Amino acid sequence: MVATAATSSIFPVPSPSPESGGAGNKLVGGPANLGGLKSKPVTSGGLKAKAQAPSKINGSTVATSVESLKLEDDLPSPPPRTFINQLPDWSMLLAAITTIFLAAEKQWMMLDWKPRRPDMLIDPFGIGRIVQDGLVFRENFPIRSYEIGADRTASIETVMNHLQETALNHVKSAGLLGDGFGSTPEMCKKNLIWVVTRMQVVVDRYPTWGDIVQVDTWVSGSGKNGMRRDWVLRDCKTGEILTRASSVWVMMNKLTRRLSKIPEEVREEIGSYFVDSAPILEEDSRKLTKLDDNTADYIRTGLSPRWSDLDVNQHVNNVKYIGWILESAPQSILESHELSSMTLEYRRECGRDSVLDSLTAVSGANIGNLADSGHVECKHLLRLENGAEIVRGRTEWRPKPVNNFGFMNEVPAEST
């Protein structure tokens, strides 16, 4: 019994119910009524004798059983150990889970309540859609920070790349894209590709960083063996027309690099997508004259394509030619004017090992005072070193407008 009392000082033993009986009641409360039976009283002498010699464990004095019994008698007895009160407190876990779900639901509802801006894309990760009875392809493009120049507006190369991307996605969405660059399945069988022969562009206003532009494109027949593709580029928020462009394309054999007629099999593939409409731009019928070293005012030599300038058909992308043409444009025009229109005639392709010259002649303006000139017109020629013509062109320029910051869109002056 003393061993039991000593053990209870470390591991409390719950008090048994009056019906169950137990030795604990004999020590704590004296005689207990056990169903009409009286327990035998215990004399205190034995307890006193054992209490006079406190036990030691490893040299340390430990409390006696009597002291433990007195302490236990003063404290309320713990509740009986049952299956229910041995389980963890599930209410705390449930409350934590509920809090997490409520917080997540609140965040989701806040996102759902957030009003949509009118300039937000409906499908920013898509490739556009077919509209107007399946004859027009439409795609949206955000103007990104790396697509603008020093004057805070998109460059002409950016605009032209968006036009080209829309044209290719049009072919892809129509299910006509083979394994070539814009070639249909029948064209791939016959090793045919599209090449541009003429491009005409009019820019009313250049978009700026953060704008979203909407590009519509469609195709029509051009003569017996050509195709015309037109574009309209608008401000997605206001609907304002920013750019209009029209181009003429012909077929070329990828192996022989010679022009080809449109085979009947290819005509059947693409004929149902042709739109019977006039060009979006009235054709500029003025003849593009050839420049030479004597008639050009500015010449830039030693231009050569890089590997990244080639497309999947292993020839220089037509947008790259525009950059080369502007390489010889006078710096004073680039800083004070913006390109308002452009007409290009593509006469020959160049390969990866070609070296080119860019020639520009300025007409209708005082070359010594171009920055203060009004509208300026330039003639261009891109040629190989041996004199073979690549592209003839004409560009028109207008003074840059005052931007939202209250000054001209000019290149900042270099600090000294």
Secondary-structure blueprint:
Elements: H1 2-10, H2 23-28, E1 33-34, E2 37-38, H3 44-51, E3 56-57, E4 60-61, H4 65-74, H5 90-113, E5 129-131, E6 136-142, H6 156-173, H7 185-189, E7 192-203, E8 212-222, E9 226-235, E10 241-253, E11 259-260, H8 264-270, E12 298-303, H9 318-326, H10 331-336, E13 337-346, E14 356-363, E15 376-384, E16 389-399
Antiparallel strand pairs: 1-2, 3-4, 5-6, 6-8, 7-10, 7-13, 8-9, 9-10, 10-11, 12-14, 13-16, 14-15, 15-16
Helix pairs in contact: 1-4, 6-9
InterPro entries: Acyl-ACP-thioesterase_N, Acyl-ACP_TE_C, Acyl-ACP_thioesterase_NHD, FATA/B, HotDog_dom_sf
Domain Acyl-ACP thioesterase-like C-terminal: 295-398
Enzyme class: hydrolase
Features:
416 residues; alpha+beta; Thiol Ester Dehydrase, Chain A; twelve-stranded antiparallel sheet; two-stranded antiparallel ribbon; 10 helices; extended; disordered N terminus; acyl carrier activity; Acyl-ACP-thioesterase_N; fatty acid biosynthesis; hydrolase; fatty acid metabolism
Terminal residue distance: 101 Å
**Which range does the strand content fall in?**
25-35%
Question: Which value, in Å, is the CA radius of gyration?
Answer: 45 Å
Structural class of the secondary structure composition? alpha+beta
Order of secondary-structure elements: HHEEHEEHHEEHHEEEEEHEHHEEEE
**In percent, how helical is the residue content?**
10-25%
User: What would CATH call the class of the domain at 124-283?
Assistant: Alpha Beta
- CATH superfamily membership of the domain at 124-283, which one? Hotdog Thioesterase
Domain Acyl-ACP-thioesterase N-terminal: 1-123
Domain Acyl-ACP thioesterase N-terminal hotdog: 134-270
EC number: 3.1.2.-
Protein name: Acyl-[acyl-carrier-protein] hydrolase
